[in-house]
Amino acid sequence: MGKIKVAIAGLGNCASALIQGIEFYKNITGSEKMVPGLMNPSIGGYLPKDIEIVAAFDVNRNKIGKDISEAIFTDNCTVKFADVPKKGVKVVPGPILDGVAPHMVKSFNCYDEKEMKPVNVVDYLKESGAEILINYLPVGSAQGSRAYAKAALEAGCGFINAIPEFIASDKGIGDEFEKKNLPIAGDDVKSQLGATILHRAIVDLCVNRGVQILETYQLNVGGDTDFENMTVEERLKTKRISKTTAVTSIPQYEIPTKIGPSDYIPFLKNRKICYIWLKGLLWGQVPATIDVKLSVEDAPDSAGVIVDVIRCMKLALDRGIGGRLISISAYSFKHPPVFVPDSVAKTWVQEFIEGKRER
Ligand SMILES: NC(=O)c1ccc[n+]([C@@H]2O[C@H](COP(=O)([O-])OP(=O)(O)OC[C@H]3O[C@@H](n4cnc5c(N)ncnc54)[C@H](O)[C@@H]3O)[C@@H](O)[C@H]2O)c1
User: Fold this and answer.
1) 220 — phi, psi (to 5°)?
2) Is the domain defined by 195-297 classed in CATH 3.30.365.10?
3) In whole angstroms, how far apart are CA 64 and each of 18, 108, 205, 296, 319?
4) Residue from 113, 188, 302 to probe ligand 1 pocket by mutation (most atoms less than 8 Å from CB)
5) Is this structure's pTM higher than 0.85?
6) pLDDT tier at 31, thresholds 50, 70, 90
């Protein structure tokens, strides 16, 4: 199989976990029945090692100019689980736009526009040979995400939107990608064993077992720049919508909910703690409650999903399919173009991989 040439906007913790994982799984052959941590060892013949990062954009002065193998361990705090050799790909300055909120200038070590000029993203993508661009910008980057999506369109790249900006789920933008026959997937990664998939599973279980859900909440705390960025409620609007609709889209009735990032606790670093609480009515309208605590390293949790999205997007590119990739988006993102139960999405993805479903 050929290589899958990927560019990244935002070389933070998620990118670090993805790049480390490509190295970590470099020896798998695809014939294994089970590989711990991988949902699919092979996707249409593509293995994780086939993913090659060919370009990386960031605004952090300490990351810019460094080889990506070094930059992923600079000013990031997720766990190190693989040594990454030099890749010969240097981080270049991307346009800042609204990627850096005023309270994040210091933590992101943002470059000064008077001293450094951003590269032309479209030209750089073309020169690098990138086929796919992943958006890993901070939550609340409305302009930044749209600028990178537009650059992907102009450079002829597929676009994966890992963050809670409504881009793949926006019909207008999806149509633009379809016109250019370029695939797009998103929005907002639904992690491998994250708060959303766990909360959805609990709600789905209640619905399937005739339990009426009266109310539920999901509180999340963490200590990385993602959580620090989200201490400003204004940047959180789309994140709250994305996380909430991912859960409330399951039952056929409304449930009072409170779901979202709850606090920033610096010493937790990339560890995310999530508390899910739910109250429901059983037989005879007798109440029951569920209390769950999940503790995960957040960035590897997202990379375990993106590694499949990249390979599904490559299949779409190989098959000449553009527009919104409905099945992999429903399975892998909190706010996809089409919401379906996860079990249905899993079947759709399998059918897509086997070529029985177009998107
Ligand atoms: N499980 C998960 O970790 C998970 C799940 C769903 C969504 N997400 C989302 O993915 C995104 C990335 O998460 P993360 O943990 O890697 O965040 P992070 O804070 O570690 O990384 C963000 C990176 O973006 C860079 N950046 C800021 N503005 C930029 C710009 N204009 N151009 C290029 N780079 C820019 C920062 O310097 C930083 O390196 C966040 O929006 C997060 O909410 C993460």
Assistant:
1) -135, 130
2) no
3) 19, 12, 47, 29, 35
4) 302
5) yes
6) very high
The residues spanned by each domain of the chain are 4-190+300-353, 195-297
Average pLDDT, rounded, for the chain: 97
The protein residue whose alpha carbon is closest to atom 25 in ligand 1 is 10
Is the pLDDT at 251 greater than 90, yes or no?
no
Give whole-number Cα distances, 35 to 17, 43, 297, in Å.
17, 13, 19
Reported as a single tens digit per residue, the pLDDT across 195-233 is 999 999 999 999 999 999 999 999 999 999 999 999 999
Superfamily of domain covering 4-190+300-353: NAD(P)-binding Rossmann-like Domain (3.40.50.720)
| Dist. CA 301 → ligand 1 center (Å) | 14
pLDDT digits (tens, 9 = 90+) for 341-355: 999 999 999 999 999
Interacting residues of 286 by C-beta distance below 8 A, sequence separation 6+? none
Ligand 1 pocket, CB under 6 A = 9-15, 57-60, 76, 94-97, 99-100, 108, 136-139, 144, 162-163, 188-189, 191, 194, 224-226, 298-299, 301-302
Helix (H) or strand (E) holding 184: strand 183-186
